[in-house]
Amino acid sequence: MFAALRWPKASWRSRGLAWWEATYWALDLETSGLSSSDQILSVGLLPIQGGAIAYGAHYYSLVRPRRPEALSAEGVRAHHILPAELEEAPPLEEVLPEVFRRVAQGVLLLHFAQVDLAFLKRACRELGQPWPAVGVVDTAVLVARLNRHRARLEPHAQPLPSGLRAAREALGLPPHLEHHALWDALATAELFLLLRERLGLRTLGQLF
Amino acid sequence: MNPIEFVRQQAPFHLLPEEAMQKVARGLEIAFYPEGSKVLEQGGARSQHLYLIRKGTVRLEREGQPVLHLEEGEVFGYPSLLSQEAPAFDVVADEDLLVYRWGERVFQQLMVYPEFAAFFTRGLAERLRFSSRLEGALLGLDLSLPVGELVSRPPVFVPRDATVEEAARLMRDQQVSSVLVEGEPLGILTDRDLRNRVLAEGRGPKTPVLQVMSAPAKTQPASTPLFEALNFMVQQGIHHLPLEQDGRIVGVVTDTVFMRKQARSPLHLLRRLERTKDLADLRGYSRELSGVTEGLLAGGLAPSEIGRSVSTLNDQLVRVLIGLFEAHNGPPPCAYAWLVFGSEGRMEQTLLTDQDNALVFEEKTPEAEAYFSQMAGFVVDGLIRAGFPPCPGGYMATRWCRPLAEWVQLFRGWVESPTPQELLEAQIFFDYRKVCGALSLEPLDAVVAHTAQQGIFLAHLARASLQFRPPLGFFRRIRAEDGGVDLKRGGIAPIVALARVYALEAGSLAKATVERLRAAARAGRLSREGAETLEEAFGFLMRLRLREQLAQLKRGEQPSNKVALEGLSPLERRHLKEAFLHIRQMQESLSARYQTDQLG
Questions:
Q1: pLDDT on residue A7
Q2: Closest-CA distance of chain A to residue B32, Å
Q3: Which of B2, B30, B55 has its CB closest to that of A53?
Q4: Greater model confidence, B445 or A10
Q5: Model ipTM?
Q6: Contacts of residue A56 in chain B, CB cutoff 8 Å?
Q7: Phi/psi of residue B82, each to 5°?
């Protein structure tokens, strides 16, 4: 799946940029489950520009599912999205272009990138849209890098947990409202700012 | 909690209407600063943002010295934004810092909401007041000005061989209420003298001025600050004050000048005390005294200066009462001293507080015991009528009226074989000060001066001084009870107690807290920096308490030691926290030094 990711040559060159010169779009999806038959229910994203999170430029939308009859009660309990709210929501055909319009000019920032990428790519396929060539930074991967880094310095150090909430807590970030696409995206963005600092990464290229 | 909910709960954002919260949301940026990094730099680029701490703490440093700590929910960066000048502090992330921030344009859009804006500008005004004494200027009399500025005409002199008739004619022609008498020592003749010493005594117009003038006249340098000149006149009981500069007299100021300029001058009250003929005249004294206090505070005086003025007046009240008693009951059978303790002894009284007083007399005879117990009863009763409530602990002359030998015995007992409970109560006796009487307290002073060698006494006193602790919780947060903080228990009393220990260690007989701290620093018992910090904290807390108490009186409430945190500006909250932190540090180091936890 990752082999399918193609990078335009310009992107490779731009990897020499200072990290804060790039725009990062932290993104999170709430879905009805984790299998390939599950559906996207909401999208939240917000940018990091000039090294700071621009909260005011966030985008958040519920997504009207194609097969509402397939939604399970557990899913509703987990993300507190009620089926009635979804009926009013725009369909994926309208939401996805809004997402890509923003993300196209930046780097995508995800926590456990595979999961959300799989959903996004499947959505592209179903809508007959090409997958835009964006770079992806995965904060879960950065946590793993920080763990390796720490292990070299302190062999007996307790490794940081990889989950978003647990990693944030271990690194001293405040608790956030989980299972909401926008707040999870914001939590990812904050975690990214901290991890980049801890890892001492200065250029865009060093983040991948 | 989502970011906007968080912001909405923090001052001053909680004052914004819903429409403004949308601007807050649109303009919100979130940034991260690792521990040790500088968010703003003293003298560096001016602040581009208003910052609100979401997580972590920052410290404000000046010349590398930490001045202040800020924590979650507190704002910074705005002084530089408002003044358009470089930051006055380094702002350093004490721990990893997650901040919310808004750019200058958004900040300005929010400043159109008056309540929000007042939060920032109020803090600014307060900072200005520290240097410019704005309030006094508003009243028309800045009490920190040199007294020489009040001189409106050159002094009027008569020759040394003049008669009182010539002097009186000159005073009429020149429209002055006093003349100076040429030559050495400098003399002064006032219209009061013409009445009391000439007419009332049946002297004639040809009486030489030399016979009735006051000489040497009490003078002050023209550069003396107004409030000190005022204090000097109150203490000396004079109404005319010649001012000198470069060895010559440049003018005379009269108390009427002060009184005209300042409706509630201490001199008004002093005049009133002078006229007191019986106890009934004392009604309303307390109300007038709080008016005087308010005037002095508004005049920009430091609380220590106000305390001196107020104590001087209260001392005068005691002297008047004792004078009334003696006029009625005849002269005392032996020498005595009227003592005051606690804040009165330290001259740190501002508003009326409980009475803390005692009587010492020279010899134990049945006659003396009878006389002085009557005197104690009369004066204590007079003070109650004047508005001083009786001391709940019973530290009043009616109970503490003893011969000197017994007092010395009592102090020796405390110093040589102290018990913790006794010392908790006896601490304030070490703040004694003589207000009236001819008896020398030298034997008592000698005991106190020797406490520096009494390790066990000092250790117990140190422990007693730790009885009250600043109300600080985790993360250096001020712990409020019922929304308020007790300034006395949490700050003032701990500093007073610390200063007492340090001063006694240094063998100093100083009583005022500020003087004790300075004496301890001079003797090397306390670092100069530590002493100055405590002195500043003390002044801040006293001033804050006084302001709150005056406001309470105005609202018709009983003055208390509590202040509501919401009523303070952000700057005052910071200062309060800083003051508490310093006190805690000093208490910890004193405790470690004496290992007070290991005392039985």
A1: 41
A2: 6
A3: B30
A4: B445
A5: 0.88
A6: 25-29
A7: -70, -45
Provide CATH code, domain B152-221: 3.90.1280.20
CATH architecture for segment(s) B3-132: Sandwich (2.60)
Q: Where are the domains of chain A?
A: 19-202
B244: its two tokens:
């000198």
CB atoms within 10 A of CB B591: 15
- Which long-range contacts (C-beta less than 8 Å, at least 24 apart) are formed by A199-203? A199/A142, A199/A145, A199/A146, A199/A149, A201/A19, A202/A18, A202/A19, A203/A15, A203/A16, A203/A17, A203/A18, A203/A19
At the topology level of CATH, where does B463-598 sit?
A: Four Helix Bundle (Hemerythrin (Met), subunit A) (1.20.120)
Kindly tell me the burial class for residue A175, based on how many C-beta atoms sit within 10 Å of its own C-beta (0-12, 13-18, 19 or more): exposed
Nearest chain B residue to A173 by CA distance is: B55
Q: How far is B30 from chain A (nearest CA, A)?
A: 5
Q: Which residues on chain A are in Cβ contact (under 8 Å) with B25?
A: 55-56
In chain A, the residue whose alpha carbon lies closest to the alpha carbon of B103 is: A54
Q: Which residue has the higher pLDDT, B457 or A45?
A: A45
* Residue B456 distance to chain A (closest CA, Å): 46
With CB atoms and an 8 Å threshold, state whether B56 touches A172.
yes
Nearest to B263 by CA among B295, B239, B285: B295
B14/chain A closest Cα distance in angstroms: 19
What is the SS3 assignment for B144? coil
Residues pairing with B345 in the sheet: none
Q: Which superfamily does B304-441 belong to?
A: Beta Polymerase, domain 2 (3.30.460.10)
> Can you give the residue ranges of every domain in chain B?
3-132, 152-221, 304-441, 463-598
Instruction: Indicate the residue of A172, A183, A186 with minimum beta-carbon distance to B96.
Output: A172
Do the Cβ atoms of A174 and B55 come within 8 Å?
A: yes
Work out the widest C-alpha separation in chain B, in whole angstroms: 92
CATH entry, A19-202, from 3.40.50.300, 3.30.420.10, 3.30.1490.20, 3.40.190.10: 3.30.420.10
pLDDT at B191 over 50: yes
